[in-house]
Structure formats: structure tokens, C-alpha cells
Amino acid sequence: MAKGYWVVCYHSMKNQDAFQAYAKLAAPAVQAAGGRYLVRGSPAKVYEEGLNQRVVVIEFDSLQKALAAHDSAGYKEALKALGSNAVERDMRIVEGVG
Q: Which residues lie below 8 Å from residue 5, measured CB to CB, with a gap of 6+?
């Protein structure tokens, strides 16, 4: 079964306090759903048209588990703490190959 991944790119951070509140809730919710952080930070180097933005990659045992983690009560609480204006980011949930 192919694994599932969250790929999150942070374009800007407008409210560090809200982001910290989100992080305190999101990490335990993700881990409780079986997520493993593979990448969490800024690029060491960017190439081509890459942007120097914070990137987070989280691995789950399956695409279904990745989707369920996003829809979990714990992660919804984290998103509530983040609010709608604290960060500009985009998130993708993708299925791994093989």
C-alpha cells in the first residue's frame, strides 16, 4: 500500500503566537494519527524557481490515514488555534509511489 504525505509550504508568517499555538496542538494530533515528520524547516538551498519558505512534509502509512488525520478532531482544533489570518500557506495531501 502506498504511503500518504502532507506537503505544506508557508508563504508568510503574520502571527507567530497563533502559529506557536497551532504547532503545540498540531504535532500531537498528527503523531496520534500515525504521522511522522520527515521535513520541518526552511530550505538549505533553493534552485530554479524555488522559494525560500518553510516546508513541512509528514508521512502516513496510507493516503487514507493522511486524509483522516487532517479531518480529525485534534487537527481541527489546531487549525482553529491557527485562525484564518496567522499564516499564508498551501497544503497538499499526496499519495506516494509504490
A: 38, 57, 58, 59, 60, 66, 93, 94, 95, 96
Q: Which three cell numbers stand for residue 90?
A: 498551501
Domains, the chain, with CATH or none: 4-43+52-95 (3.30.70.100)
Give me 70's grid cell: 487532517
Distance (Å, whole) CA 82 – CA 36: 21
Report the SS3 class of residue 46. Answer: coil
Cut 0.85: pTM above it: yes
Q: Could you tell me the three cell numbers for 44?
A: 538549505
pLDDT the model gives residue 98 = 73
Q: Which residue in 15, 30, 24, 21 sits closest to 91, CA to CA? A: 30
